[in-house]
Design a protein that fits this description.
With 257 residues, the protein is mainly alpha-helical. The longest helix has 54 residues. InterPro entries: CC134.
């Protein structure tokens, strides 16, 4: 068939109207008007639906391109963290990073829920909601990167934090429904993250793609545990210093004044 003469196939709405007109033969003067009115109604509904879909598709496709750029920046930052090759420094940086990440995720969830944003619905137009949408998707993805590259450090923090657990469960669900991870280089990220965190059951063939062997990223487990203990001691000392600084204030009685 010549492509120049290709016609768009009739829509479901048009076929429905056509069937209606065949079932109810034109016997009265008003019948044609009824068919025309129905045709206009269905075409209008179809047009509105197409417009909404087009609006989501346009905004969604633009964001997907921006998301890819953001992902490159995130991976670059993680590679720099890996190259530190210092467990103590990695521990400190990831500690600070995760606290900030989950605070942003929590705030973003509040905005999206308040605005009743559906992940598979029209792409947001309001700047505040768009920011919350992008922060949710990008931070969920970034957390997945951190989990898979630094599983021991992340489990040390994550496994005992129910709030973080609830937040990332919501984030993974939002991302899965958004369609952003349906294909491309990030299509397996959410599933791998969920399995690594124990949110979903590990499949028999589960394998962390960033593991080079069965000894995790830190071949010397004793060195890793030692680094964790040292960091815990440092944090406890820092907390004690803060308490001493805050300490009870000495108040003078009126007689002394």
């Amino acid at each position: 068939m010549n492509c120049c003469h290709w016609r768009r196939p009739p829509s479901f709405s048009f076929l429905l109207v056509q069937e209606f007109c065949l079932v109810f033969p034109i016997q009265a003067m008003g019948a044609p008007q009824v068919c025309i009115s129905l045709l206009v109604l269905f075409l209008t509904l179809g047009s509105t639906s197409d417009t909404k879909k087009q609006k989501r598709d346009t905004g969604f496709e633009i964001y997907k391109k921006l998301f890819e750029v953001k992902r490159k920046d995130q991976i670059s930052a993680l590679n720099n963290l890996i190259e530190l090759n210092d467990v103590n420094q990695q521990y400190k940086i990831i500690d600070i990073m995760l606290k900030g990440l989950f605070k942003v995720l929590e705030d973003s969830r509040a905005v999206l829920i308040a605005a009743d944003v559906q992940p598979d619905g029209p792409f947001p137009e309001d700047d505040k909601i768009k920011d919350a949408y992008s922060h949710t998707v990008e931070n969920s993805a970034f957390f997945g990167d951190v989990v898979l590259r630094f599983p021991k450090i992340v489990h040390h923090y994550f496994d005992h934090n129910s709030n973080w657990n609830n937040l990332i469960r919501w984030g993974i669900g939002f991302c899965n429904l958004s369609g952003i991870f349906d294909d491309g280089p990030h299509s397996q990220l959410l599933g791998l993250m969920a399995q690594e965190l124990g949110i979903s059951e590990k499949t028999p063939d589960y394998r962390n793609p960033f593991k080079t062997d069965h000894s995790e990223f830190f071949p010397n487990a004793d060195a890793f545990q030692k680094a964790l203990r040292e960091e815990e001691k440092r944090r406890k000392k820092e907390e004690k210093r803060k308490e001493i600084r805050k300490g009870p204030r000495i108040t003078r009685s009126r007689s002394e004044l």
